[in-house]
Amino acid sequence: MEINQSRRRFIATMACTSSMYLTGCTGAGEDRYNEINTQIRSPLPVSPDTLDLVRHATLAANGHNTQPWLFDVSRSNIDILPDFTRRTPIVDPDDHHLYASLGCAAENLSLASRAIGRSGEVAIDASGDGRIEVDQSPTTQYVSSLFGAITSRQVSRIAYEGRSAPLDTLTRLQFASNSYGVDAYMITDKAQMEKILELVIGGNSKQLDDPAFVSELKHWIRFNAESASTTRDGLYTACSGNPTSPDFIGSTMFNLFFSKDSANDDYAAQIRTSSGLFVFVADTDSLEGWINAGRAYERFALQATVDGLKHSFVNQTVEVVEQRARLQSLLGIGSDRPNFVVRFGYGPELPKSLRRSVDDVIVNS
Ligand SMILES: Cc1cc2nc3c(=O)[nH]c(=O)nc-3n(C[C@H](O)[C@H](O)[C@H](O)COP(=O)(O)O)c2cc1C
User: Fold this and answer.
1) Which end of the chain has fewer CB within 10 Å, C or N?
2) Domains with residue ranges and CATH for the chain
3) Is the pTM of this model over 0.90?
4) Protein residues with CB under 6 Å of any ligand 1 atom
């Protein structure tokens, strides 16, 4: 679970304080934010280089936007390595999300490599620290539609429009998601979605009752464009449809008004206005399986973007162990581990999140 769209009282108070602030001094922060976003999301240049490929990889989804990756470009392949200084040990004690995030980046890197005529084959060294090698040998260029969506994919943590997606769109989503040995269960039946909503609410309540969970979440929230552009990571409130405010006001309001009841109401509204849900289940509960689940999600998310759909994670059901067991029995998947739950639907565009500079994530071994 991450920051949600509207915690009613939190937002109402924030809205007053933020409008004061907006008239005062956010201009420069927002300009800087937009400038960085334009730069990180620019298309591949005419003569792209390895750094352009890495930039596309970093636009992948990743838990809490901690960007827990490093890219070793010193060999013939591009290798993706975990950056354990960017773990989120409370929500993700076994680094499942961390490795899944590397999988998301690997998928983007693979698609971008093919788009410039490099192989992009992915190999996972699951025996060590989970290094992922993305082959850069020359091959036929292939600019896929999924590649074209890398710069615009984003998660949208808001209520959607409530309409269904057409069958051909659902078929494409299923095709994209069922990749790399991952089974993606699509749920569009409203009664089934309600059952998953119950699990989300149970998990969310448990998480928000845990001060360590809330503190870790808050650590990664960026309350204004200036903070977001300084760190270029974390969960910027505006990206979740929330108002911005100076750090000390945002932090105080968060402590005072962030409540599980309003968060649960938001999740209910968000799931009930979604066209459907996908549950991703990799074939093994291992580093390799987690990475593959990330790759499959990233393909789903890029395909959804191509088809004009928004999506966001509702992972409380897989992050809280008791809820995960309930989800396993609801899906009838025995002891197979569900990796993520994602909802999708039609909705408006929100500001996009930032990424750190490529220079900050490159290493030479
Ligand atoms: C493994 C993984 C777990 C995630 N879990 C959640 C989650 O529980 N709730 C949520 O709102 N977003 C979740 N996200 C989405 C990230 O917060 C999001 O990708 C990140 O903030 C960057 O934003 P962007 O995807 O819009 O670029 C998750 C992403 C990944 C890859």
Assistant:
1) C
2) 1-365 (3.40.109.10)
3) yes
4) 1-2, 61-65, 97, 100-101, 104, 154-155, 157, 235, 294, 312-313, 315, 353
